[in-house]
Amino acid sequence: MQSQMPLYPEQASNFAPNVDALMAYITAVCVFFAVAITAAIILFFFKYHRKKPGDIGVPIHGDSRLEALWLVIPAVLALTMFAGGAVVYVQFRRPPMDTLDIYVIGKQWMWKSQQPNGLKEINELATNGLVPDLTILLDLPPSDGLVRRTSSADRLEAEPLPFHDRVRSEFLSLAEADPDRYLVLDATRDSSQLSRAIQAAVRERLPDPVPERAEEITGSIPVIRE
User: How wide is the angle at C-alpha 111 spanned by C-alphas 109 and 117, nearest 5°?
Assistant: First the structure.
């Protein structure tokens, strides 16, 4: 299938013209020398090939001027390419004052970008903006939670305690940033107290009156039962 990508994509930033100009210069130099060298090889092949079996080539003595040109010209071209690349790099390193700061987190299995307004690109792409009406966060010190496990630790549970402290802190930060959607409960409390608190929070968000089918489904969830 033919690629739909143009030779020069649409410029999406004010840095693009300089990058395009640098690439055009490098491409032009490479094409020029490729064509010139290929033409010279073909020309010399026909001009200097042995026309008779007994022909003897004429000795050629070196020309220092030619040798100097072969050294100076490539060096000048390479330095101009380097200078152009350095200028573009410096421009990239100094963003304009009115740019939008986006923080990117790279992990083994994903890239996540975080904008100042709280928008997380990976969440937006995965859920198309869909978020739960209520997120219940049972907050428990990691040192207490890890001793409750009844099976062998998986890769995440085997991480050291500071790792779990950072995870807890991140979840609490999310809850603090969106208090209307997060319900943070102290998980050290009695399970019956937690159950009643969760039940009350969920029922506040259910329609009134609650549809019979919804009441049947939510009533079957252990945590919702009285």
Answer: 140
DSSP structure class, residue 137: E
Tell me how far apart the alpha carbons of residues 25 and 19 are, in angstroms, rounded to a whole number: 10
| CATH topology assigned to domain 112-224 | Rossmann fold (3.40.50)
What does the alpha-carbon distance between residue 225 and residue 198 come to, in Å, rounded to a whole number? 10
Q: How far apart are CA 63 and CA 44, in angstroms?
A: 18
Q: Where are the domains of the chain?
A: 16-50+63-93, 112-224
What pTM does this model have? 0.42
- 71-83 pLDDT tens trace: 999 999 999 999 9
**Helix or strand run (H / E) with residue 44:** helix 16-47
For 129, which DSSP code? Answer: T
The answer to whether the CB of 83 falls within 8 A of the CB of 25 is no
The answer to whether the bond into 53 is cis (omega within 30° of 0) is: no
Residue tagged 């143009």 (tokens): 6
